[in-house]
């Protein structure tokens, strides 16, 4: 690394990072991408095993998405959606409502957390505008929806957000269907119990609950919880029964991560509001969306003086370069038949995961599509700390030494590769994970 880079990197305050330890770490400076590899300032190459925080689809480097972004930049780099329309945002909105069954309108933001804020505001104001104010929210334990105030409230994790509690709204939590570590020995009974609790909560809040918020298909950041078949569909029915809006968060699970383009359709559930982000632009540009139905949209119409309009908007809302990136990305999904490739790689992943079941430090394995969590436990207890360091740091450091970037969630090894990654690269990621489990067994 040259001296300029080594001096520069100390000024950056990194997210979710204990900065006291950061300078002691041999942290690398990424300077370019080559296919599915990240290349550091010393020329070392690392397979992008985290899909650059779960958003990367095609790897790194030039492709049709970059071309579309360049074209857009040469037309106009940015124009606002406040009072003006833009061609790429209009075309993308049409494309998205075509993909997302039952959705009619698209509201743009520039990150997933903000898309969730918009969803919460939409739900509150929908009831407000109907003169039937409902102010409570329900969400699932282990849920994560982002780091802004509303998103932290519905996806509350004490360890992360305890210090920010004075900012947050109290939200009613219902159990998440995680079998591992529960008192149930089968998913059916667990699911029955979770649904019973959900119904009890919605009944108690009847007439007061604006929306139930949950990740669609699976929870990721809260510990890779894959919903049992029928769970989301039943929650969707309960929301209808108790006249509560269903907000689905597909920011991390939509566009193929779990093997379906639109996960809520695969789950046979119907949201009133749904959020997408991450893979929407394949990681080429920060963009997120909140989609809703004509029925909800209609409640925001009225005379200006009725004050029914949605008071939300960011400087970069619906950025034309991001919209152009998303359009080109979604075209590539079709052109390259990405969903079929995901299905095949998911089968491969499933098969490789069986190799981990033999280890006595693997407590549980949860998998769907191109998402897997391998939960590490020793003698029934979560394996979080080693003698010298945290398991998470051990995995990250050792994987980098093997030319792969992995980032576990506490004691859960995460397999979450770029969606279009080839079998060979996936094989390397699985080999490294297995090697690390074997090394951990002996520590
Ligand atoms: C399910 C879910 N919702 C929301 C978010 C927040 O998205 P962003 O990081 O773009 O704000 C994330 C981020 O990981 C997520 O996993």
Give the oligomer, counting copies of the same chain as homo and different chains as hetero: single chain
- Count every helix, treating DSSP H or I runs of 4 or more residues as helices: 16
Main beta-sheet strand count, sense and barrel state: 7 strands, mixed
Low-confidence stretches: none
Q: Rounded to an integer, what's the Rg over CA atoms?
A: 22 Å
What's the pLDDT, averaged over the residues?
96
CATH topology heading of the largest domain: Aspartate Aminotransferase, domain 2
Percent range of helical residues: 25-40%
Strand content: 15-25%
Look at the structure and name the CATH superfamily of the largest domain.
Answer: Type I PLP-dependent aspartate aminotransferase-like (Major domain)
Task: Give the number of domains.
Answer: 2
Task: Describe this entry's structure for a reader.
By secondary structure, this protein is α/β, with parallel strands linked by helices. It has two domains: 3-61 and 340-441, Aspartate Aminotransferase, domain 1 (Alpha-Beta Complex); 66-335, Aspartate Aminotransferase, domain 2 (3-Layer(aba) Sandwich). Helix content is 38%, strand content 17%. The strands form four sheets. The chain has a seven-stranded mixed beta sheet with strand order 4-12-11-10-7-5-6, sandwiched between helices. A four-stranded mixed beta sheet has the order 1-2-3-16. α14 packs parallel to α16. The structure holds pyridoxal-5'-phosphate (PLP). Pyridoxal-5'-phosphate (PLP) binds at residues 111-113, 116, 144-146, 215, 220-221, 249, 251-252, 277.
């Amino acid at each position: 690394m040259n001296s300029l880079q080594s001096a520069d990197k100390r000024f950056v305050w990194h997210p979710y990072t204990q900065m006291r330890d950061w300078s002691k770490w041999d942290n690398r400076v990424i300077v370019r991408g080559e296919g599915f590899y990240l290349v550091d300032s010393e020329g070392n190459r690392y397979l992008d095993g985290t899909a650059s925080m779960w958003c990367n689809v095609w790897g790194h480097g030039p492709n049709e998405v970059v071309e579309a972004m360049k074209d857009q930049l040469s037309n106009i780099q940015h124009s606002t959606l406040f009072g003006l329309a833009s061609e790429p945002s209009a075309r993308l909105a049409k494309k998205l409502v075509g993909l997302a069954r039952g959705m009619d309108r698209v509201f743009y933001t520039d990150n997933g957390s903000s898309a969730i804020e918009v969803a919460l505001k939409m739900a509150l104001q929908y009831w407000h505008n109907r003169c039937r104010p409902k102010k409570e929210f329900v969400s699932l334990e282990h849920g994560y929806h982002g780091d802004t105030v509303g998103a932290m409230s519905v996806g509350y994790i004490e360890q992360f957000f305890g210090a920010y509690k004075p900012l947050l709204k109290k939200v009613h939590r219902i159990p998440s269907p995680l079998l591992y570590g529960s008192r149930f020995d089968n998913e059916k009974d667990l699911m029955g119990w979770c649904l019973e609790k959900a119904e009890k909560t919605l009944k108690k809040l009847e007439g007061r609950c604006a929306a139930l918020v949950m990740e669609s298909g699976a929870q990721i950041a809260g510990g890779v919880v894959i919903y049992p078949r029928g769970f989301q569909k039943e929650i969707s029915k309960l929301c209808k029964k108790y006249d509560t809006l269903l907000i689905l968060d597909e920011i991390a699970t939509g566009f193929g991560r779990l093997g379906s383009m639109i996960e809520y359709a695969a789950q046979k559930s119907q949201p009133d509001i749904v959020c997408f982000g991450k893979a929407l632009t394949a990681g080429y540009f920060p963009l997120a969306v909140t989609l809703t139905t004509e029925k909800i949209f209609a409640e925001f119409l009225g005379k200006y003086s009725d004050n029914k309009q949605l008071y939300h908007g960011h400087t970069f809302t619906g950025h034309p370069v991001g919209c152009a990136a998303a359009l080109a990305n979604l075209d590539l999904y079709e052109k390259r038949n990405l969903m079929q490739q995901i299905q095949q790689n998911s089968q491969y992943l499933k098969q490789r995961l069986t190799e981990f079941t033999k280890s006595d430090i693997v407590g549980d394995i949860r998998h769907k599509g191109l998402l897997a969590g391998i939960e590490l436990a020793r003698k029934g207890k979560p394996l979080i700390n080693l003698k010298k360091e945290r398991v998470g740091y051990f995995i990250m450091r050792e994987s980098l030494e093997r030319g792969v970037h992995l980032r576990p969630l506490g004691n859960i090894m995460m397999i979450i590769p770029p969606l279009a990654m080839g079998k060979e690269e996936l094989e390397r990621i699985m080999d490294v994970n297995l090697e690390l489990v074997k090394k951990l067994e002996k520590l």
